[in-house]
Amino acid sequence: MPAPHRTGFALPIKWLGLAPFALFAFLFLILPTLYIVVGAFRTGDGSFTFQNILDLNTPSIRSAYWVSIKVSVASALIGCLIGFGMAAAVTLGNLPRWLRNPLMTFSGVASNFAGVPLAFAFIATLGPRGMVTGWIQEVFDINLRMYGWNLLSTYGLIITYLFFQIPLMILIIAPALDGLKREWREAAAMLGATGAQYWRMVALPILFPSLLGTFALLFANAFGAVATAIALTGPSLNIAPILLFAQIRGDVLGSPNLGYALAFGMIVITGIANFLYIWLRTRSERWLK
To answer: Which domain of life is it from (predicted)?
Structure first.
């Protein structure tokens, strides 16, 4: 006998598991982003304007964006270099295999350690009265501030960002290194290639999209780090996140709508970086399959 014909609407039960995530993303990601975008093109009384976008082309705001870009590029580049070396050491090197799991576990925790706790940890360790700076002065009679060391500065912020940039690089690049097939290295060796030639002509060209994509992701990660910068340097450093916080908070010359425009510019920059990461990672996965 034929199966009875069912009428009515069938509830897609298999999609209900994604409902909490979809609701969370809509309430805390999509809606705030739309609110910022709309606010960037509004005046205080709610009328439409392009003036907030045009006001971004001022010396102080251009300088804030430029300093943020320099900090992000420097921390992303150093994080990529150190993270790649550490990931390669535990993945392809001769280090004991048992080191990999602790390193990956620590990287998973440290890549999400930011904000006020991270700033406090670095101030307590490397600040003007920090544990390490005080120990160096007491034991070696070396005052690091006399040599130009200042944690609450641009290079201090870069060093602080490296605490989560390096672990993030390790987490992302380790699977790509695992994807390098042993047959490729054996084939290169049979053809007379040295280890350096293998890396220069085979491994690095294959890994290049992954490396470039991870650099873009680390750049976006540092460019959007607001809480760490504010907690570490306060208003003393002119970077985009701190200037944004001052505008939206409503300081003496604060303009919330100009703050929305600043945030809109940051969204555009980080969006481009994340798009490059996704595109380049897709290309690298084709090679590693």
So the answer is: Bacteria
CATH number (domain holding residue 253): 1.10.3720.10
Residue 97 identity (one-letter amino acid):
R
Quote the pLDDT of residue 114. Answer: 82
Question: What predicted TM-score, i.e. pTM, was given to this entire model?
Answer: 0.84
Is residue 5 included in any domain, yes or no? no
Tokens (6 digits) for 266? 């940051």
Number of domains in the chain: 1
19 domain residue, yes or no? no
- Check residue 2 and report its DSSP letter: P
Alpha helix ranges (H) inside 144-203: 154-178, 182-190, 195-198
Residue of 185, 179, 166, 246 whose CA lies nearest to 210: 179
- Phi/psi for 42 (5° steps) reads -125, 155
Provide the residue range defining the domain that includes 228: 25-288
* 253 assigned to some structural domain: yes
pLDDT digits (tens, 9 = 90+) for 198-239: 888 888 888 888 888 899 999 999 998 878 888 887 777 888
List, in order, residues 6 or more apart from 9 with CB less than 8 Å away.
none
